[in-house]
Amino acid sequence: MKSTLCTVFLVCLYFASVLAIKDMMRKSIVFDKNTPDVFYCPIQKPSGMDKLIVKARPLKKLCEFEGQPLPEDYKSDCYQDVDESNYACKEKYRIMMRTAPPGSEKPFEGKRLARFLDVDKEYYLAAMEEKKQEMLAGNSKKKHKKGKNQA
Description:
Helix content: 40-55%
Signal peptide: 1-20
Keywords: Signal
Order of helices and strands: HEEEHH
Number of domains: 2
Strand content: 5-15%
Radius of gyration: 24 Å
Distance between the termini: 81 Å
Number of helices: 3
Number of strands: 3
Shape: extended
């Protein structure tokens, strides 16, 4: 009985550590606003976030294939192709919207990352609709109070 529990515990511990490492790898893309033309990604398997060895790559290489299958002759820029993950594409969109927001001199067009624009557009429209409903509710309360004061 004890050996079974110990085995189950070790298997659970193993899976937890694997998931933690995968999450650490997924989020290992680094952007520094002081170097806006590059991003940093790991070049070898890290043993911890404090021991992460990174390489600078041009920002255009981040999410270069937009989540599509990588070509067979593709030479990876980063360890385990973390620069081509969905997280990497979201990071690129976030970075580009920060460095070239709509209304700026050279706004980010976003055509390459349109799938992320749709998600943000839905969120924006839902938030604006909610704000509009709140404003309408606030205006109707004010009109109701004015009617009571005049009577």
